[in-house]
Amino acid sequence: MRLHLLCGVFLIGLHSAAIAAHPKVQHSERKLNTLDPVSLQEVAAQELRYRLPSYIVPTHYKLYLETQVHTGNRSYSGSVDIHLDIRQQAKTIYVHQRGLRITSNELYAFNPNTNLTFLETLRYTEDAEREFAVFAIRRALAPASYVLHLDFEGELRVDDDGFYLSSYLDANGTRKYVASTQFQAISARAAFPCLDEPALKATVELGIKHHPSYKAVSNMPIFAEAGDLDGNVVTYFETTQRMSIYLLAFLVSDFLYTENEAAAQRVYARPNAINQTLYALEAGVRIMDALDEHIGLPYRSYMPKVDQVALTQFSAGAMENWGLCKYREEVLLFEPGVTTYRAQTTITTIIAHEYVHQWFGNVITNEWWSYLWLNEGFATLYEFLGADMAYPERQYRDLFNVQVVQRVLITDAAESTRPMTFSRGATFNAILSLFDNVAYSKGGSVLQMFRLLLPDAAWRQMLRTYVQGNEFGTVNTDNFVAALTEAFDGVVSLPEGTDVERFVQSWVNQAGYPVLEVRRSYRGEMILSQDRFYGNKIVNNDFTVWVIPYTMMEQGDAQDALLEWQWMTSKAVRVPSSTPNDEWILVNVNQTGFYRVNYDPSNWYMLIRTLLEDTAAIPMHSRAQLIDDSFHLARSNRLDLEIALELLGYVRHEREYPPWEAANRVLGYFHGRMRGQPDYVLYELFVDTLIGDVFVTLDITTVAPDERLLEKYLRQVISSWACRMEIESCLTATRDALEREVFDAEPVHPDVSAVVYCYGLRTAPTVAFQYLFGKLLGSDNRGERQLLINALGCANDTEQLSSYLLAAIGGELQVNFNAEERLSILQSVLSTRQGVDALIEFLTENYTYVVSLLGPNALANLVQSIATSTNTLDEEQMLIALLEQLNSVLPASVSASARTTASINLAWPSTREGLLLRYFLERYNFQPVQSGTVLQPDA
User: Fold this and answer.
1) pTM higher than 0.85 for the full model?
2) Which residues are catalytic, by number?
């Protein structure tokens, strides 16, 4: 599943990077607070209170629903026969339900030969806290098969959860209603009474009664359609495979579809967006074919079809329901001439993510939510590998390290991070909080490490063993270890005293990750040591030990040479080394392992010299890793910041996107700290020096037909920085391109539109802002609308910004923005200090409207963002004045946090990091230079 990313790429023209995390991750991290250790212990201890007793096992559901959603009516009714296997004598039956009204019940004994025998109507009580309907039985039931028949009533929810109501405007502006589902993790119980735990798999037989102008679609193909006497239609579906109930899905709408009949794939969308479904259909077919071949267990051997649905309202972002994948429109629909290369990357990788779930998540499912990484880790890994197999010319797999591994190395370095296998309890919020970067990005990164230990054929055989051995069942770490053990046998040599179980558990049962310290004696040996890496400190008394696989490359080694895996299993070890003292070594080549590497200063400087003199001598992904590792090692005081900065200086000679993306994050951090400081001009010169040679090679406003995907990423990173640093040629080029669209109807290519629109507005006339705002109002494409919202927030004209912010809450110009777009507008202006100032003024006068429209959490997040952008005394005074104005509606903890953030920012120039950066900038005479020239100290 993918949680919705509010802004696909926030401040897209300024920061770079495609979606860094699955949208589902972004959603859960926005909605849920981190639980403190005491709370974690409490909820874990009470988990069993919320779990179903093990003696009740569902085997089949016969579900029938009636809805009049075509009128917008939220009321619906239904019935369900729950076939139960009672495995011990019982006087109580527990069934999950949330917000439903059970109107009648009957209990039957079930015998395949004699069919059903009525037993009794049961008394029941509701346990709202635990979301149980508890049925009491007069005479204890003997272990056997039973059927519990329930009639019930409910209302379509309005929070995009369970069985919910959404809507859209058709081509005539008429509002049309849609009934859809989102059951992961525990919201099937909000649609109908059921046993709502992932391990309780059952088959499902579904019928839905609806108006004949609407169609119903579900996991399985339609079995039959029958007219009813009241003029409605009942759609019956074939019985599903045995599956977890959260994977059940259905949709009642007037949507149309495009189809590849041979591949048994369809893509559904509202009628006025159906022309945007062709790419999703093409990508779906290609990705499924690639996964079929790679895994070796064809999808059609499990399910007869797979459909994709584009929804205007879907909080999950995307969801892998077996045979019926659902997506928000902006992550599925593709409109030629409008959709950007970044959006196409997102669409392709999310389809791959949901499709690989058809095996890892659907055929086999995590036994409990504590093992969620076994679902989401595989999906995160294969969203890039699967997309790459379908479109190898795009090099999607080259995005994995910088957009997944390096990003989660940052978040997983926090003291509060959790292990991959972990439970917070069984309540809705506790389970949803596990849909985080650890389950998704760390899970995918660690699986990538496991994968690269094996030859490709052995890894693929492991996948088949793992899936076939647990087919239609549930899995935990033991099941994965068993399959990996079989794959390692005779292929991977583990160190003495270590087996696959110890190796795997060291990564999935321990929080965080290690830093591998490599210290050369330059007398024929190295000392290797490991410690848990924390992003903000060094801890010397942490005795956590990982089983670390590593590769080592020596200066002069061929990059295509097969590297030998070596192992680190203790806190420290002395290792012989034959590398000449004047040549470097490189460990964890291409960042295959999930950890950081630090070297002694001499080895660092040898690497830096090679990066400057012969950049390509070090593998591309290792170059990106060296930038990322050195920066974070320096920030945690494990490495001299000057070494990290000197290494960063090599990117003047870099022409590949992955290292530049790693550099982009470093430059972004220091820009946030330096802006507003008296010596900010020195930082501008530094950035100008780094980007200068690359920038002059780029045409930042046109796109060649044969341009590689990674070249497009590189251009956006470089051109964003060039315009951000106010390089005149960049601002002129973007303004001219924008004006050609405004005045000459010459459209800006979508692949450069984010930068052109954002920075073109800086110097273009007011009519350009009005043009882009009108384009936003006239657009029916969710992806384009988000891009335009971000671009308009780049304006630096005070009046434009003020009017734009007022539009978000419905000022004089009444605009039909949805709630997420309103919040996006308020967030978009944070891209510039002028925008932050405008937001402060706006919130001072309009905070009550923001709270009423978007809620108190939105206001709190905006205030914290303003605090993050506060660097000077004047800006701090503006923040304090705002906090005083918001005193009545802002929690004291939010105000205190904002003040603390601002204080830390103001103190930064006098910190060790701030002083070292200033010393570095003052020491060197930075000027844009030609390739081959090295940084020179100022004489």
Assistant:
1) yes
2) 354
